[in-house]
Design goal:
single chain; alpha/beta; TIM Barrel; 13% strand; globular; disordered C terminus; binds iron/sulfur cluster
Length: 367
């Protein structure tokens, strides 16, 4: 198996275009084992023993496409950091919890999170094309497969139908584009048929990690369920490629607005230049930067967490230098329906400057 920036050109040229562009081929040919990872790195399996331990807790999944964008030999590659296992994921003594947003507690029915009065989030699958090592739902990767999907989804539809305050349903996961298209069509249609549901939203990283999944057929189906919004997660400018741009363009052409929710990740995008280039790139492909999330205190992600001060300084420079169209809202997500606390640039918080860390301490106390 040959992948990676240099060698991947071999893979891509050696793979018929039809297969490379087939999302099911990409999905089937993901790196899923230590042996495959060793092959990618061109190293003996035994030399990766520490990674093997990580995979027992947090399995690996990387599409050939995403792998082709990174340099497997460079430990500092910002895309490699997002998908290669790292022994630091097992540094549990550093703190963090499996479910920092208490999502399991806010589920009135299995898989449906109802934290805010007017909207809820349906986790329709635990499957993703790529396992992002910073994921705040990585606890789900090794969860037992829940029962039949159609029956689980029906229970969610029933809950939404008997809860008139819900005007928006976010369909997420895992990656909702990885359940069968017919089932997703049925689910969106069943939600759309509920009179008080005004808006649907899909959260999917497919445009970034598996852009072939955005097919004309999928777009035609999604178009039927508008108003439908689509949020994805680009974290670095290197993820903006011809393929990912085309995927977003197809959604936009179907009348589906595409937004982006990045996560501030140490060693990936926690510097001004990387974040600016990402935001400029998103603007170029007509994807609206929506949120920049402070990385949640998820167990096994401590090495990704940048200081809030770092994020505030980056936002300060962005706010001063780049177009408002490119500016996301930098937020700290909080459990228990306390919402997303905006983390404003210093210049918008004069009392923070005058009073030292006073305002920031208040924010920390709320967490
Ligand atoms: S695509 Fe989203 S849910 Fe899936 S592993 Fe990545 S961050 Fe987690």
């Amino acid at each position: 198996m040959t992948f990676g920036k240099e060698s991947d050109r071999d893979l891509r040229s050696g793979t018929p275009v039809g297969e490379w562009n087939d999302w099911k081929w990409q999905f089937r040919n993901r790196v899923r084992s230590l042996r495959q990872l060793a092959s990618v790195l061109n190293r003996p399996v035994a030399s990766l023993a520490p990674c093997g331990l990580v995979l027992r807790t947090y399995p690996i999944a990387i599409t050939p496409y995403y792998l082709s964008l990174l340099d497997p030999a460079d430990e500092n590659d910002p895309l490699r950091r997002q998908c290669f296992p790292d022994p630091r994921e097992l540094n549990f003594y550093l703190g963090g919890v499996e479910d920092p947003l208490d999502e399991e507690r806010d589920m009135p029915v299995p898989g449906l999170i109802h934290r805010y009065p007017d909207r809820c989030l349906a986790i329709v699958t635990g499957t993703c094309a790529v396992h992002c090592r910073h994921c705040n739902r990585k606890r789900m990767w090794r969860a037992k497969k829940p029962g039949r999907t159609r029956e689980r989804l029906q229970v969610m539809v029933d809950y939404v139908a008997r809860t008139p305050a819900l005007r928006e349903v976010i369909v997420s996961g895992g990656d909702p584009l990885l359940i069968s298209e017919g089932l997703l069509d049925w689910f969106l249609g069943a939600l759309r048929a509920i009179s008080h549901v005004e808006v649907l939203r899909i959260g999917s990283r497919a445009p970034v990690t598996l852009p072939m999944r955005i097919t004309p057929e999928l777009c035609t189906m999604l178009k039927r369920h508008r108003p439908l919004w689509f949020n994805t997660q680009f974290n670095h400018a290197l993820e903006i490629t011809e393929e990912s741009a085309r995927a977003c363009e197809m959604l936009l052409a179907a009348g589906i607005p595409v937004g982006n929710q990045s996560v501030l990740l140490r060693g990936v995008n926690d510097d001004y230049e990387s974040m600016r280039d990402l935001l400029y790139g998103l603007e170029r492909i007509s994807v609206r930067p929506y949120y920049l999330f402070q990385c949640d205190p998820v167990r096994g992600t401590d090495h990704f967490r940048a200081e809030i001060w770092t994020g505030m300084e980056i936002m300060e420079r962005l706010w001063r230098n780049i177009s408002g169209l490119c500016l996301p809202r930098y937020v700290l997500d909080c459990p228990g329906g306390r919402g997303k606390i905006p983390l404003q640039p210093f210049s918008l918080l004069p009392e923070t400057r005058q009073g030292g860390k006073h305002s920031f301490d208040n924010i920390k106390q709320m967490d």
